[in-house]
Amino acid sequence: MLMNAKHLKGMAIRALDGELGTVDQFYFDDETWAIRYFTVETGGWLDGRQVLVSPFSVIHTDWQERRLDVALTKEQVENSPDIDTHQPVSRQHEAEYLGYYGYPYYWGGPNLWGPAFSPAGSEILADAAAEALADRIRRESTDSHLRSEEEVQGYFIDSSDGEIGHLDGFVVDDDMWTIRYIEVATRNWWPGKKVLMSPAWIERVSWANSKVYVGLSRDVIQSGPEYIESIPVSRDYENRLYFHYGLPPYWLNEAERQATFSMSPV
Which of 147, 176, 202 is the last residue of a domain? Predict the structure, then answer.
């Protein structure tokens, strides 16, 4: 299901044995735009400590009840590696975190989630395999390519012929746990109108200058389908969006990759 990421904030996280807390924000991978972690406000039971929860642990998403069910226990979370969520998360921190839970390293395979096509398709690693991978990761680069959701809110958006607005949010896919679209507010040029753009259309991002560059003209963007947050993003809307821009939809490529993944030998 595609949902506006604004609905994630404040969602309850329910473990196998009780409530963990609520979602504060998320970290995404600036190369693939996959959501790698949620930061969770744990409240009183952990003395206000924030913890990370990976989409690998999510077993059910209930948007109506505003709840994420995770395959974790409160004891597991309490004993998890202490990561300062107010500082950049390094690759070493990630390796320690993923190794603790036995999750695969998403950067160690051909798919969006490493060896798995989606978080739900991953398997918990045996201790020996997790430790072997952890040893390898300790020798690798410290650059994790993670960006916080809050960090990029408000980034300016530049078209091929000038600025068109700013990044005002995200539309996420809760199956693949990836950002499908960035929400662009264009009110400085077309009052009240918002549009969606796929991360695949982004030519580059200047993290230093807080600017996103897309290879589309103002006129093309202006005449595109309007995004109205109160209306769910349907496949019909997506078809109109991709038809307007004359670009191939993501689901064709993913269906091909899924078929290839399914036929791969175990």
Answer: 147
Residues, the chain: 266
Neighbours of 82 (CB within 10 A): 11
The list of the chain residues with pLDDT below 50 reads 126, 128, 266
What phi, psi does 105 have (nearest 5°)?
-80, 115
Cα(255)–Cα(117) distance, rounded to whole angstroms?
Answer: 11
Residues 6+ apart with CB under 8 A from 97: 52, 54, 80, 81, 83
Beta strands in 47-140 (DSSP E): 50-53, 58-62, 67-70
Q: What's the domain count of the chain?
A: 2
- Rounded to whole angstroms, the Cα distance separating 163 from 153 reads 16
Report how far residue 224's alpha carbon sits from residue 195's, in angstroms, rounded to the nearest whole number: 7
CATH code for the domain in which residue 189 is found: 3.90.50.10
Q: How far apart are CA 56 and CA 112, in angstroms?
A: 12
* d(C-alpha 91, C-alpha 78), whole Å: 21
CA–chain centroid gap for 219, Å, is 29
201 within domain boundaries:
yes
pLDDT at residue 181, rounded to an integer: 98
